[in-house]
Design goal:
This is TonB-dependent receptor. By secondary structure, this protein is mainly β. The protein contains 16 helices and 49 strands. It is globular and about 105 Å long.
């Protein structure tokens, strides 16, 4: 109500009244919060980061939302970023959290373009509070356990000191895809079911291969397929239903287990100085579960497949090969046997995550006088994240596939050196045929693993108070400085570095930066208590930052407030915010690739016409090549030699956000307990960091000559493309605007002696949300469109609480307006081209959703020392929309829906108790 910019405040009572174990679940209901970059429902398929919980204000990205604890930074939970994993903040230790939207960099620093989520921890526990809760879905799965113990006391003379502590344990078991009808089967453009199962089957899909160019394309395949029945008898062809249903083993939500210990203390050493300490340690374990590796003998680096004389080959197939290879028809010969095989019994590529987060903050605060205060603080935080999974050694796998019979008739590896090293031949012909010994041999000696270490150190000092008096009040100011140092390392195992296991080659990343900042705020009262001017004031803030990576950055804001009379206040603020590129964007190692690209200049002559012809001839080397009637051409060798680099870019500059908010605050004396805020917001993100596709860089460099495209394209002295990079550059833009409404009303009803009704409504109407990946790209509207941002036109969160005596009833409703999953016109054209079923077409239209959560709470004991509560989330069991895994849908893999937006679990019950001693 008093802030110059829109703020949503969620208190401890509201957290407890919804049975919240993880605060991400509550934040996701707020209309200001968009789709999280990381959550339990969208991280199952990541190579790391499974189960991490992040916040995305205004759908501008998690890296543009700054998360603070007691106004201070928290160590990042994701490698190379500023993104905080809010799993590390225990719900039972939170007094409230405040959501400030819009450019807040001037006040809080970089990363606050979209806004700030500030967690305020408790300070006033006296005694012991024990709390326990258990929850389960109405299908008997997705169990959730939570227990916490908080304690606090005062100490020292006159109670000058206080200490509070909390330990929390929580466990969420997660949910398997097969346990919900919507996601139990693989889906594709053909629909859901056996027709869409993966051709990488558990028993293998084998194909006779013909290396004779006369049969068509050199190295092409003959048409013959074979596989195996469940009893491992031979099955010619590959009938529908013989594939692998990947959703049978996938997860909708990842399990997560957390142990968090927190301790806060303070001691008043003098009337003007109080020492304080905050500490947190969190141990988090999570895991993913995905289908076993789909190995392809042609594309996955294990050679050309099985030799035709492999001793594991079924006799019937062997006889067929002998007959074909002796009929004198070369085009009919079989030279090898290619395979697609799921590695079910060989190894599991599901991740195991183990994270340790430690943070300590301390300092001194106090008053210089009755008008001036100060604070000096330091923060140190560290994250250690270890993610590992089994994997194969590609070179060993190739050795195990190549088997022969020795002189004694034993099946052995053909390579003598491999045999000496312990090679065991692997049999993939059928279900479960790879022996434990063969599986053990092809496994990598060490698991596929990444070790992440983030560290953060911050020193901050500030003073604030009254500068001088004006006729209508004191001019108040706050000034200070901050030093921050951050470092991040992402260390992969040796095989992953070399690209010799089943995943992509991944280099290590290491980087660091420091920043020195000076900041200040000013509040000037202009008029007060005059006719038609209850109050009039202006405010401003500025922050100057000097980064070791990008140099100087300046953020500022300016605004004002005007109240014509008591109960009505107008407010406005304009802010210019910045985000410095993070460690990953700057320092991630460049990896070389040889992309398949086309130069529009290929084939240009002196007289040719077309979109790019004139621009091509403007390149001197090309002009010279075509001036005497020649043609500018590429050879196959020229095309194949084009390289490029992906990764970080140390020449990045800061992103810039411009925010305008205009609003009104209404709290009439005539209606006690009512307050209403209405705010218009307009946020424009410029110079955003993104990646331009290589083809776009080539084309737009010719058409526009702009540096953001041409800097990616390097031509040699013949005019031919030599290198096309796809590294991070400052190229993208986003703009969003809308209206926020916060309505609060509470009063006694008089039905009983002490009854009360409270209503709180948060509502956001988004007028526009447009993104552009680069200046040449189309402007995509994400309002009501899941494909281009997933921003709801209208999103409402309303909480109604009725209490009387020891009983309270809480009802929370969250409304999500209708959505489509892609642009309607484009969808219709593409759907016709692909021949999609009418059922799949209908699923493109997502209706509005209304989720309802209820809780009943009862207090007992002489001083209400015991609370008992029971609740239901998604009371009416609203099912999520079905979004098949086709080219249209941005489905979370394994869920057949947008599981990070719509509830994929269904109705859930929970019950618990809290006791105070």
């Amino acid at each position: 109500m008093e802030s110059a910019s829109p703020v949503a405040v969620i208190g401890q009572q509201q957290i407890q009244s919804q049975g919240i174990v993880n605060t991400q679940d509550l934040l996701q209901k707020l209309p200001q919060v968009g789709i999280p970059g990381l959550s339990r429902a969208n991280s199952n398929f990541l190579t790391s980061g499974n189960g991490i919980a992040t916040i995305n204000l205004r759908n501008l990205g998690d890296s543009r939302t700054l998360v603070l604890v007691n106004g201070r930074r928290f160590v990042p939970g994701v490698a190379g970023t500023s993104i905080v994993d809010i799993n590390n903040i225990p719900a039972d230790f939170i007094e409230r959290f405040e959501v400030v939207t819009g450019g807040a960099s001037a006040v809080y620093g970089s990363d606050a373009i979209a806004g700030v989520v500030n967690y305020i921890l408790r300070t006033d526990i006296d005694g012991i509070i024990a709390r326990g809760q258990y929850g389960i879905s109405d299908r008997g799965d997705n169990a959730v356990y939570n227990g916490s113990l908080s304690a606090g006391t005062k100490f020292g003379a006159d109670g000058r000191g206080s200490v509070i502590a909390n330990i929390t344990y929580s466990k969420e078991e997660g949910l398997l895809s097969r346990n919900r009808e919507i996601s139990s089967q693989d889906c594709s453009s053909l629909g859901c079911g056996p027709q869409s199962y993966s051709s990488y089957a558990a028993q293998g899909r084998f194909q006779l291969r013909n290396g004779n160019a006369a049969s068509g394309t050199a190295g092409g395949f003959a048409s013959d397929l074979f596989t195996f029945n469940p009893d491992n008898s031979l099955q010619l062809g590959f009938p529908t239903g013989y594939g692998f249903n990947r959703n049978a083993v996938r997860r909708i939500t990842t399990p997560i287990e957390r142990i968090i210990g927190s301790l806060n203390a303070q001691y008043e050493v003098a009337d003007s100085a109080t020492l304080f300490l905050e500490s947190t340690y969190a141990k988090t374990r999570s895991s993913s579960q995905i289908e076993a590796l789909a190995l392809d003998s042609i594309n996955d680096g294990v050679g050309t497949g099985y030799n035709i004389d492999n001793p594991f080959l079924p006799a019937a197939i062997r006889q067929q090969i002998i007959a074909r290879n002796s009929d004198g028809i070369a085009s009919n010969d079989v030279t090898s046997i290619a395979f697609r095989r799921r590695q079910n019994e060989v190894f599991s590529r599901s991740n195991r995550n183990d994270r340790d987060t430690f943070r300590i903050a301390g300092g001194v605060r106090g008053d210089f006088s009755d008008k001036w205060n100060y604070e000096l603080s330091a923060v140190y935080g560290q994250l250690l994240d270890r993610t590992s999974s089994q994997d194969i050694d590609i070179s060993r796998y190739g050795q195990a596939v190549n088997a022969i019979r020795d002189a004694s008739g034993n099946i052995v590896c053909a390579d003598a050196a491999a045999r000496a090293a312990g090679c065991v031949p692997i049999n993939l012909f059928g279900y479960g045929t790879a022996t434990p010994e063969a599986s053990a041999y092809v496994l990598a000696a060490e698991p596929r693993a990444v070790r992440i270490r983030n560290t953060q150190f911050v020193v901050n000092g500030n003073v604030g108070g009254s500068l001088f008096a004006l006729p209508y009040g004191d001019v108040r100011a706050s000034v200070g400085g901050e030093y921050r140092r951050e470092k991040s390392t992402e260390d992969w195992d040796a095989l992953t570095n070399a690209g010799l296991n089943s995943g992509n080659q991944t280099p290590d990343t290491i980087g660091s930066f420091n920043v020195k900042e000076a900041f200040g705020e000013l509040d000037i009262p202009l008029l007060k208590n005059l006719p038609f001017v209850q109050s009039l004031s202006i405010q401003g803030a500025a922050r100057y930052s000097d980064y070791s990576t990008i140099g100087h950055v300046f953020s500022w804001n300016a605004g004002g407030e005007y109240s014509p009379f008591r109960g009505l206040r107008f407010r406005g603020l304009y802010a210019v915010a910045n985000r410095a590129p993070n460690i990953g964007e700057l320092f991630s190692s460049a990896s070389e690739t040889f992309p398949s690209v086309q130069d529009p200049c290929n084939g240009v002559t002196a007289t040719s016409t077309g979109t790019y012809a004139a621009a091509c001839r403007a390149i001197p080397a090309i002009a010279a090549a075509v001036q005497n009637g020649g043609t500018f051409n590429y050879t196959l060798a020229d095309i194949q030699s084009i390289n490029g680099f992906n990764g970080g870019n140390r020449n990045l500059s800061e992103e810039k956000g411009k925010t305008l908010t205009l609003g009104a605050v209404i709290a009439p004396d005539q209606v006690r307990g009512l307050s209403l805020t209405i705010d218009y917001f307009d946020i424009r993100l410029e110079n955003a960091i993104g990646i331009v596709p290589r083809a776009t860089s080539i084309q737009q460099c010719l058409l526009t000559g702009q540096s953001q495209f041409c800097s990616n394209v390097i031509r040699n002295n013949t005019g031919r493309i030599q290198t096309v990079n796809a590294q991070n550059i400052n190229v993208a833009a986003t703009k969003t605007r809308g209206i926020d409404v916060n309505f609060t009303y509470g009063r006694a009803l008089g039905l009983t002696q002490d009854d009360r009704l409270d209503l709180n409504v948060l509502y956001t109407h988004t007028i526009g949300y447009d993104t552009q990946s680069d200046p040449s790209a189309p402007l995509n509207s994400g309002v009501g469109n899941l494909e281009f941002g997933g921003v709801f036109r209208n999103k409402v969160n309303a909480t109604l609480t009725y209490s009387t005596g020891p009983v309270s009833l809480n009802w929370t409703a969250t409304y999500l307006s209708p959505m489509v999953d892609t642009v309607r016109d484009e969808f219709a054209e593409t759907a016709d081209a692909l021949g999609l079923s009418d059922e799949i077409r209908r699923h493109n239209e997502i209706t509005s959703y209304l989720y309802n959560d209820v809780q009943v709470r009862f207090r007992a004991g002489e001083r209400s020392t015991m609370d008992f509560f029971i609740g239901v989330n998604n009371l009416f069991d609203r099912k999520p929309p079905k979004l098949e895994d086709t080219v249209f849908y941005g489905t979370i893999t394994g869920t057949t829906t947008a599981a990070d937006i719509y509830d994929p679990i269904g109705r859930r019950f929970y019950a618990g108790a809290q006791i105070r001693f």
